[in-house]
Amino acid sequence: MRKNPVGGPAANANHCRTEAAPPQGAITLAQALDRAVAFHQAGRAEEAADLCRSILQVRPERAEPRCLLGTIAFGQSVTETSDEHKTGCIKPVP
Question: In which domain of life is the source organism classified (predicted)?
Fold first, then answer.
């Protein structure tokens, strides 16, 4: 059995799964979230919200984009939506 660079079993073993690289031109979910945060900090709330919604379409269990959506909604004085997203940050999605 060949070893991976850190000395464990071969990388194709079941317990050593890694995420596949995204297709060329695509970004990872982590990069999308980083970009959403940067958009929000730059005052580009709609672009940040669009990215958060895209992340949640793929990974609805992720709390970070849900919290950022709540923060954006709060900043836009949409308290009902803000509360809904903030609650989703705390409670797991079934």
Answer: Bacteria
